[in-house]
Amino acid sequence: MNFAVRAVKARGNKTYDSRSPEENMFKNVVLGALLCTVLLPVALSAQTLFIGSGDGFSPTVYGFRGDPFSGPVAFTATTSVLQAYPAGNRYYVFSRNSIGTVSVVDATTFGVVRTFNLGQAPGALAQTPDGRKILVLNLGLRIFDGVLDTELPSVTGDLGLSPSDVATSFDSRRAFVLSTTSQRITIVDLDTYSTTGVPVIVPGIPTAIASGPNGLVYVSGQNTIWEYMYDPASNALALRGQITFSGYIGKLQFSPDGTRAVAINLSPGVASPVSLFIFDLANRNLLGSVPQLPAAVSKVVVPDSNRCFALSPALQKLYQVSFANPGAPTEVSFPGLPTLPAVRDIAVSVEAPVNRYLFIAVDTTLYRIDLVTNSVSGQLGIAGNRLGDIAAALPTTSNVPSNVIPFNANQTVGIGAVPAPLIVKVVDFSGKPVANASVSFTSISGGLIVTTPIAVTGVDGTAGTTVSVPAVIGVYQVSATVFGVAASTTFTINVSTVVGGGGGYGYGLQIWAGHGQVIGPNVSTSSQGQEQLRVRYVDAAGNPVPGVTVTWTLTDAQYTTGTVAPAVSVTDANGFAVADYFAGPVTGGAILGNPVGTSTIAATAFGQTVVFNVITVGNPVLGANFPGFITVRVTPPDRRLTVKAGTTATGAITAQVFANGAYPLSGASIRLISDTDSNPTRPSLCGGGIVLTDASGTAVCDVAAGGTQGLGSYTLIVGGSTRVAFAIEVTPGLPANVQDVRGNNQRGRLGERLPIALSAQVIDAFGNLVEPGSQVTWEVPVAGSATLTNVVSTVDNSGRVSAAVILGNKPGSVQINLRTGTNVFTFTLTADVSIGRFAAVSGDGQTAEIGKAFAQPLVVSVADAQGNPVTNFDVRFEVLSGSALLSSPTALTDSSGRAQVTVTAGGTAGPIVIRASVESQPAVTFNLTARLPGPVLDVRQIVNA
Q1: Does the CA dihedral 703-704-710-715 come out positive or negative?
Q2: Rounded mean pLDDT of 718-741?
């Protein structure tokens, strides 16, 4: 018996009927089913791997899909592949050739729709995170708009000599072009296609630049990695820190979670017998190194934070390196694939926070290795040729978001410093990045400003914002939520202390001492009682940067002369560099009989300049060549202060400075230091660091307190030479957090008063019990869920507050918030109800295509022991087996006692089992089926031939 099978085939966006008996005579139904699989439409959301020909001269390129694993599709394009980027419904495939450098490939058919000839091979490539622009270093910086399929205007401006590498900002608005020859980074505005801002001089020999998953920029070089942060507000790259080692490395390759990076040693040998360096980016240190292998490594991939794979092309061998034991790399083998002869290239899939698959091109076969099971999960071959280099393009997924992965989630910054950008990566149920998801960044804490409240994820699934935090010590939080789904995360930024611990002036080149100094004629700043001109260079995290060259120049002198020496100094281990100024005689400018001159000295490092002013005061009686003197009047007269921890006492100290006892002296400095802090890096404790007197000779020091309680001795230094003693007591700060919590996690029946009152001790941001009389706020966020009685919101002598709880009429979880300043502690309670019946209502037995939603929701009902519907009750849903994504892991019952979730089929066809459960009742299960797309065989369409 023969059958004719009706198949509906996909061709572009159209369908056609192939029911012709002459074309559709098959031996059996199995052949019809096989035809259905062959005609599957290509999934644009799958990762695509473009592999060149291994013979070096054939223009054939092979296209493979990563998940589901399929291919190859061969097409004619180029003799080599370098990199591939998604662009709308196409891919930009770059080669190493000057002719046919760029092939624009249709993502569905693999047909080449356009070719660009760039005249020479690309020097470096990058794609903006939004996927819109592709950057090519090729006789300058060239930019392609992948969506419009056009080349944009070339960048104008000086990019330095022989630009060597390029990276992009997390917001897709800036490019960072590295010139190894000029040892500098140039910022490019991708909206105007021109250079912008001030070029950054790299303090060493750079080799490559890369944008990390955390939104920071990393420059590789000889013996050093420099970490930079781009600040959109100032349109500048700021040096945040560095990692030192002994080697000469290439571009960093990052782990998906952004905590690790691996770099190839470009010059292994006697001086540096290492093939790979492994770095801990979170702690800025060298994690380990891989001893020099028998042949050079050309490529490394980092699928997670625990290991990497390195390819040695000369030996055609692949090595696995465990970060726990990097000194013992092993040749790769997997069950079912014990040996790997002739490895041509490697790539990894793009899931986060861990890559799922490793792809290995071996001669004529592409293997897919499941890195969860460490076994071969598929292999596909080609005929008549060998495989060459792999260019793996990101998938352009728009699946339902399932998880939000934060970067820079917990930060500590000094007052006035700029936090690192807040970055999220939105992924689907399988960990693949989700593009075009809207993310809302919301300040939870007062005073914090979010620069970009709503951001959209790019092709890599990332979105981000910068924030500005108040210059007030405390803890500030920002929430990031994906619109339409229950996926969110929270960022926490701690603004560090000043008085009583910590402190600083921001980052970069800083004036530390000597500015606004008052000196006599023919006196040096190195003389007893005076202060040397002192600068400090620190990164954005406040870490000192040693070895920085500082140039000193006397730029102006009014009514005096002088010299500065040395002309060049170098920062020490604490980041300090010093110079001395020798003041000459005052040559005029006597005001009210007081000879006064001013000098300006510039200190410059990496293109950043800070300016010192030094005042020379002569003697009105003895003459301008003799030193004068200053007198100082301070308030408070008793020189005692009390400041709450973590707060700033505005106008706490006032100093008025007079030259020779009568003339109000403008531009003289005051700064406050701790007498008990022996740290040489102790900063001035006045708000703003060093404060200068105004035209009336008056300067005001706003004292910011840190977290160390108690009475301490401090010195106010006026004009660099006069010292005034102060006693400052730091008392407990404002309410910020809680400890010794009681009554949390209680259970009770609806309407019942809980036996233990909720209580907690209230502490400030530094762990000190707050002062009695401080106020907190108790809140019931869900109306009707509970009632508070016997509320104590005023802190007592033991630092405690309390409230009793009567549960409301809503079963399940009940939350009570205790708000202390900008922070909230949540008590979680449970209101119990006796469940008598739990049952499935509808949704069982459905079928849907992979990647698509099932037509009907899964519905369950909950009733009490008397058969009445239970409202506002949590029902848990989970996928027991199969591949599927739930709209939510929990659902609340409505007024009829019903709860429901929707289900989207995952990327693997087959049965799906989903369990719904509540406490104290047997669970119920739903059995669903995910099928492959394509024609569906209908028995009514099977006819006897």
Answers
A1: negative
A2: 91
CATH of 835-931, one of 1.20.1250.20, 3.30.365.10, 3.90.1150.10, 2.60.40.10: 2.60.40.10
Query: Phi and psi of 598, rounded to 5°?
Result: -130, 145
Alpha-carbon distance of 941 to 8, in angstroms, equals 12
CB 77 within 8 A of CB 105: yes
d(CA 295, CA 268): 10
Q: Are 893 and 899 in contact (CB under 8 A)?
A: yes
Residues 6+ apart with CB under 8 A from 714: 672, 673, 674, 675, 685, 725, 726, 727, 728
Q: What is the mean pLDDT of residues 857-867?
A: 91
Q: Is residue 131 within 8 Å of residue 398, measured between CB atoms?
A: no
What mean pLDDT comes out for the span 589-601? 77
Decide: 225 and 243 in contact? Cβ < 8 Å.
yes
Q: Is the confidence at residue 545, as pLDDT, over 60?
A: yes
- 100 backbone φψ class: left, alpha, beta (φ>0; ψ -120 to 50): left
At a CB cut-off of 8 Å and minimum separation 6, what does 721 contact? 517, 518, 519, 529, 530, 531, 630
The pLDDT of residue 451 is 93
> Over the stretch 681-712, which tens digit does the pLDDT of each residue have?
667 788 768 899 998 999 999 998 877 888 98
Q: What share of the chain is helix, strand, coil (3-state, %, to 5)?
A: 0, 55, 45
User: What is the average pLDDT value for the chain, to the nearest integer?
Assistant: 86
- Convert the pLDDT of each residue in 290-307 to its tens digit: 999 999 999 999 999 999
DSSP secondary structure string for all residues of 154-221: PPBS---SS--EEEE-TTSSEEEEEETTTTEEEEEETTTTEEEEEEEEPSS-EEEEEE-TTS-EEEEE
Buried (b) or exposed (e) across 445-463, using 16+ Cβ within 10 A? Answer: beebebbbeebebbbbbbb
**In contact, 276 and 321? CB cutoff 8 Å:** yes
Q: Domain 737-832 classified CATH 2.40.128.20?
A: no
Residue range 508-537+545-728 forms a domain whose CATH class is mainly beta
Looking up tokens 């409301």, which residue turns up? 808
**Lookup: tokens for 832:** 């119990």
Distance CA 779, CA 762 (A): 16
> Could you tell me which residues come within 8 angstroms of residue 553 by beta carbon, excluding any fewer than 6 positions away?
564, 567, 601, 602, 604
d(CA 494, CA 236): 23
Cβ neighbours of residue 44 closer than 8 Å, sequence gap 6 or more: 89, 107, 108, 395, 396
**CB 463 within 8 Å of CB 437:** yes
Q: How high is the pLDDT of residue 399?
A: 75
Fold of 403-495: Immunoglobulin-like (2.60.40)
Please, are residues 785 and 806 in contact by the beta-carbon 8 Å criterion? no
Residue 41: predicted pLDDT: 30
Instruction: Assign residue 934 a region (left: φ > 0; alpha: ψ between -120 and 50; beta: otherwise).
Output: left
Q: What is the DSSP letter of 940?
A: G
Q: What is the pLDDT of residues 167-185, one digit of tens each?
A: 999 999 999 999 999 999 9
Task: Give pLDDT tens digits for 612-633.
Answer: 999 999 888 887 788 888 889 9
Q: Could you give the residue range(s) of every CATH 2.60.40.10 domain in the chain?
A: 403-495, 508-537+545-728, 737-832, 835-931
Higher pLDDT, 272 or 293: 293
Which DSSP symbol is given to 503?
A: -
* pLDDT at residue 130 tops 70: yes
- Lowest mean pLDDT segment, chosen from 261-265, 510-514, 560-564, 820-824: 820-824
Amino acid at 129: P
